[in-house]
Amino acid sequence: MAASAGGTQAPTDQVPVPQGEALTLEPCSDSRAGRLSFCTKVCYGIGGVPNQVASSATAFYLQLFLLDVAQIPAAQVSLVLFGGKVSGAAADPVAGFLINRSRRTGSGRLMPWVLGCTPFVAVAYFFSWFLPPFTSLRGLWYMTFYCLFQALATFLQVPYTALTMLLTPSPRERDSATAYRITMEMAGTLMGAAVHGLIVSGAHSPHRCEDMDLELPDPVAVSPGAACLYSVAAAAVAVTYPVCIGFLHLGVKEQPDPSATASSQGMSFLAGLGLTVRHPPYLKLVISFLFISAAVQVEQSYLVLFCTHASRLHDHIQSLVLTILVSAVLSTPLWEWVLQRFGKRTSAFGICVMVPFAILLAVVPTAPVAYVVAFVSGVSIAVSLLLPWSMLPDVVDDFQLQHQHGPGMETIFYSSYVFFTKLSGAGALGISTLSLEFAGYEAGACKQTEQVVVTLKVLIGAVPTCMILTGLCILMVSPTPKVPRQDTSRRLSLRRRTSYSLA
Hints:
disordered N terminus, globular, mainly alpha, disordered C terminus, 503 residues
């Protein structure tokens, strides 16, 4: 991206590339102009699958599990969801600080963090769905393991996403690798919802209320089989962590990072964080997607509850979830083409497509409308996930062109972005779940009160609509960095490749 009009251009175009030193590139990569091979991009994308599989399962089913299977009061569920998101958000700057100060090993500087966190995050995820034999302290049990899972997932996700900047010096190739990652992550999201949903589908069948007076919202005892089904689903998802991270380690080699040797002598993490949050393009990007990402999380979290308690769509839950995710997976390559052809700011309008349909679902909760809404929501969710991760490398390049502190700032940018978006999601989910408590939600009830039904309609329609429109307004009126011009891209590539060869 071009530097701003008043920005200072670093004289990097005069730096000679040392002769006789070959650049160290990742396995099965093309050394010409920093090209990445198909094999490398696929393996890099596979590395992002486990967190998305787990996030998909928790986004669609964790709230329902805690309310109707574990039968925790809605107020405690609100604390669990809020605490978990805050834990993950708080872990972001900590992860960025520790990774920024870590030394390079034989596997690189970022890859060891990914490998080291993998077994622990898998175990924490499994116990987040395990039903303990005691009842009085279940809220504390789930709070502990869900917070631990979110924190460990963050320590895995921050170095993994920051690895984008160390794959290649070419902005176009980084965009392509990001598109592969988002596509694979969307496939992981689809797999998580499909596998988890199919396994636990028998735990929430509506026939359990057929012989009861539906006008009495009395709690229904949960069969032991429901808890077993959720444990099996959790184990199936947990296995994806070692498998997919193994592919990442085998297929991708981290480029030598020039900041690894200078991190101890350069600026501190807090000083770097202060610079990043004062960088206007980054600040506007973060603020806009605070609202957009929170809206997507609210939409995902309450879809299953809405279909279960506010409409007669119990039998369509699994199909609707799969429709959303299949639509998102199929539309991701299309959005990548739109980003390259029409620009990233123009592509942002694709996010607001879901707004009228979300309102329509709340007003007319019928099966045909629900499937149309699910398809359109998937298309919008795809661009809402692809766009910020495609714009973030441009923001980093823009920062590097205007400051002398460019190398080594990738981890700070990525960790702080995830921190702010998780914090917004924590607030949105915590407050919205608490609203169910105020509305009188009864855990395990066959029929909820009218106040709960109205609250679910507001949460599925009005709340995401307001958040999306607010975020888009901020994104549209703010200056965003452009894709680098050829000469600017050449200077950045020369700077990075020179640093790599000298590392």
